[in-house]
Amino acid sequence: MGTLYVVGTPIGNLEDITLRAIRILREVGLIAAEDTRRAHTLLKRYEIKTPLVSYFEHSGPQKRRQILDVLKDQDVALISEAGMPGISDPGYDLIRESLQEDIPVVPIPGPSALISALVVSGLPTDSFVYVGFLPRKAGERQKTLQSLKDEERTIVLYETPHRLRACLQDMLDILGDRPLAIARELTKIHEEVLRRNISELLIHFQEIQPRGEFTLVVQGAGKTQPHHYDLETALALAQEMMAEGLSAREAAAEGAKRTGLARRAIYDGLHSH
Fold first, then answer.
1. Are residues 185 and 94 in the same domain?
2. What pLDDT is attached to residue 112?
3. DSSP letter (8 states) at residue 34
4. In this structure, are residues 153 and 220 in contact, taking their beta carbons and an 8 Å threshold?
5. What DSSP assignment string belongs to 109-166?
6. Is the distance from CB of 112 to CB of 83 less than 8 angstroms?
7. Exposed, middle or buried by CB within 10 Å (0-12, 13-18, 19+), for 140?
8. Cα separation of 192 and 198, whole Å?
9. How far apart are CA 113 and CA 124, in angstroms?
10. How far apart are CA 95 and CA 5, in angstroms?
11. Which residues of the chain have pLDDT under 50?
12. Which segments within the chain are labelled E, that is strand?
């Protein structure tokens, strides 16, 4: 009996892979990959010559059966397009059926856009809920957001570039104007984390075309900002930056990035002092 290894792979930067993951990918008899093109890039980088088979969203029961048959006498590594398999990807079905057939399933931890975005968001990390991708259709998306309106935990979700603006508008209408962190292209060349209120980020992405992969971290209902990031702290920080030559607008934007408070609140505070 073989073992199914659930292997975390880089979400962008190819250096973000563990030594154990590289060893497992070399030692197994087969690698089942969600995206074989991206897998080839990773395997070539680390000179891994293990046979590769495609296993993606539309792979049906027959493809899973083929992989399960291999697992009868060989180890198999499951990798997603990026990050940990089983999180918003087709790996779940293969993992579930492997367990049903008493095949050992072993995790090889690795990068995760979900956790990476959460820990740099500046929002509470002690308790959170992950909701994956919101529904494509507007009505279903709005219904899902309505169900989250009173959720007190930090909310983490993924969104695509072409639906981001509609998502932000629905969030503003249903959840209200609360703090939000948007992580874009994590670990890649154009990595960016924006920490502002929903209304400000909606304006931001109305002015520029959303591009890349997005993870959204939304403050839970009824939560307040951490006490060490109060407005007075943010204003003091912004005033220091203005003394160094930044304009009020630039200082407010930088203060918002560092504290998680709304840029507009800091900017208005600078002009009222």
1. no
2. 94
3. S
4. yes
5. ----HHHHHHHHSSS--SSEEEEEEPPSSHHHHHHHHHHTTT--SEEEEEE-GGGHHH
6. yes
7. exposed
8. 16
9. 17
10. 9
11. 225-228
12. 4-7, 30-33, 52-54, 76-79, 105-108, 128-133, 154-159, 179-184, 192-197, 214-218
- In sequence order, what E strands does 75-118 have? 76-79, 105-108
Q: How far apart are the first and last CA of the chain?
A: 71
Sequence letter at residue 201: L
Burial environment of residue 162 by CB neighbours within 10 A (0 to 12, 13 to 18, 19 or more): exposed
Query: Computed from CA positions of residues 70, 71, 74, 79, in that sequence, does the dihedral angle turn out positive or negative?
Result: positive
Residue type, 78: L
Q: Cα angle vertex 248, ends 243, 254, to 5°?
A: 85
Is residue 210 within 8 A of residue 202, CB to CB? The reply is no
The residue with tokens 């997005």 is 214
Identify whether the C-beta of residue 62 lies closer than 8 Å to the C-beta of residue 18.
no
Q: Are residues 105 and 123 part of one domain?
A: no
Which structural domain, as residue segments, surrounds residue 61? 4-111
Whether residues 59 and 125 share a domain: the answer is no
Please state, in angstroms and rounded to a whole number, the distance separating the CA atoms of residues 202 and 216. 12
pTM: 0.78
Number of residues written out for the chain: 273
How many domains, the chain? 3
Is residue 149 within 8 Å of residue 221, measured between CB atoms?
yes
For residue 106, what are the CA distances in angstroms to 1, 2, 86, 96, 254?
13, 11, 13, 13, 43
Q: Is the domain of 123 the same as that of 214?
A: yes
43 contacts 50 by C-beta, under 8 angstroms: yes
Structure confidence at residue 229 (pLDDT): 58
- Here the CATH number for the domain that contains residue 187 is 3.30.950.10
The Cα–Cα gap between 113 and 225 comes to 23
Amino acid at 17: I
Interatomic CA distance for residues 27 and 108, integer angstroms = 13
